[in-house]
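This part of the workshop introduces the protein records we will be handling. Getting from the letters to the tokens is the skill we practise here. The record below serves as our worked example for the rest of this section.

…
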Amino acid sequence: MREMAVALLEETVLDVVTCDTGDDAVALLRDRGAEVAMVFTDVSLPGTMDGVDLARTVQTLWPSIRLVVTSGQAGAHVEALPDDVVYMQKPWRALDVLVQVDRAVRRPSLPIR
């Protein structure tokens, strides 16, 4: 599913950057957070933080970034997501992801490149 998500997102106006772990994503955001419109993550991630932890961190430090979290078996983890986070059950539809991209890039504070 990750490869499909990357391929889909690469067809949008967004520049796509992938990270292997939530920790890597936070490190990237510390350097380039002002340039990021959307974070699309799975609940299950390798490393010290899962997708829910990543979503909480991003919402706290970069509140203007649109957060989309997905999982095939999120269970009670989904209830721990912040209110502004969009949750998509796997398998998600490509159109639903594209709608979230559209909402992310239409944010008035972010110029489209």
In short: The radius of gyration is 13 Å. The first strand starts at residue 38 and ends at 42. The chain has a mean pLDDT of 87.
